[in-house]
Fold this sequence. Notes:
Elements: E1 10-13, H1 20-29, E2 34-38, H2 42-45, E3 55-59, H3 65-72, E4 77-80, H4 92-109, E5 114-120, H5 130-143, E6 149-154, E7 157-158, H6 163-174, E8 177-180, E9 187-188, E10 191-192, H7 193-204, E11 213-216, E12 222-223, H8 224-234, E13 241-244, H9 250-260, H10 265-274, H11 286-289, H12 297-309, E14 342-350, H13 354-361, H14 374-386, E15 407-408, E16 411-417, E17 421-426, E18 432-444, E19 447-458, H15 460-489, E20 493-500
Parallel strand pairs: 1-2, 1-4, 2-3, 4-5, 5-6, 6-11, 7-10, 8-13
Antiparallel strand pairs: 9-12, 14-19, 14-20, 15-16, 16-17, 17-18, 18-19
Amino acid sequence: MAEQKSEKPVLVAGATGYIGGRLVPKLLEAGYRVRALARSPAKLQGRPWASHPHLDIAAADLLDRSSLEKAATGCGAAFYLVHSMDPQVVDFAETDRQAARNMALAAAACGLERIVYLGGLGEEGSSLSDHLQSRAEVGDLLREGPVPVTVLRAAMIIGSGSASFEILRYLVERLPIMVAPRWIETPCQPIGVRNVLAYLVGCLGCPDTVGATFDIGQEEVVSYRRLMEIYAEEAGLRRRLVISVPILSPRLDAFWIHLMTPVPAALARPLVEGLQNPVDCSDTRIRQLIPQPLLSCREAIGRALERTRHQDVESFWADAGAIPPAEWSQPGDPGWAGGSIFEDRRCVILGAAPQEIWPALQRIGGRTGWYASDWLWGLRGVLDRLAGGVGLSRGRRSSVELRPGDALDFWRVVAVEEPRRLLLVAEMKLPGKAVLELTLLEKAPGETELRLTARFLPRGLTGLLYWWGVTPFHGLAFNGMLRGIAKAAGRPVLAGPQRLEKS
Length: 503
């Protein structure tokens, strides 16, 4: 039985995350009004659907109940899609508890009609991993309030850009022979991200789902070994040799995943720990309540692989979280206000208008590379991975566009002002803070200055030594980058590159 759409907006907590970033446009397509929550609203304002007339972007922090209640006022239903998997969070379970309690209290205070929560599969008990226990606990805390909660429990979600899919992809593509721990034989019941979104949207139109818990997954139960075999077949790779050993060391497994994939160890470890738990569906009533064709593992992997090959990924595992602050790097404050800020500015004059250069500029990074000295950037990425950082392997979500909040190798996009400015903040391991800014300034008709500015705020003596150590390489990397952008844009260099004195 279908339910009539409410005029009240649907609240989406976790709109900048992997699922939330795909759910919002699906809700808009289905005719719902949507209020999308974000700690950094700029991350949503660059999305293709950001200007939709039925969308309201609200700034709120789930750890700040007052901001959450303000954002939830006037809403009807709410989606709760938040998990504190940020490597910067020391105790993700406690953070999840606090956020879930705030959501339950805000929902009650604002008179919300229902909450839909996407949790994790797994039989509850002492053997359940900390990550899966935390996800189950979040559902319990949400249900402690008076607002009815619908819980959808999912195992591995297969989709382009998901952390689980990226781990699978990199391990299979990079390792023709793999020694794997015993979790390789653990049974699971994955689900394609397309089916997850259809269930989430479908819950709003199905009153029989209110207050109930359902397991969602495709029909086949498979092992992780089988998933690797299917991926290799879909990717056209030779059959991989996977040797299972009777040991389980989440710390070692997480570090190995950290080295071989873009997923950092802090995020990989809770995922790996969860792989020891069988995750198959026991309550599948939702298949009758919200019928849809369920993608098989092979179909879901094939679709995800196709999207990845074309770098046409709608949302990415690294999307979640707030945009790191970069205000310290902007002119206006005296140097002593936050410490000495080092700056390296270089420019080149090109025979072109800014809009003719912009496409090449925003293709930087990922498979395109950094237009010069890629070996040097690659070496910096390797050193960062060995130090526990993200390295270069994250790549980028799309090959042709950048939007605020996007991961870009070991940078994060802070600002995109087409066709004149791109601001990146460093997320590599550093003894300080760093930003890289590229700007286009039209000097005369058909003549544009392309300027590169690197700023660094050192932390202690180590930070000073780091800046002095890398500065000799700036000429090679930065001047080459400016020339490379000009070459990629197909426009002549009229003057430069040259270094500019600090203003």
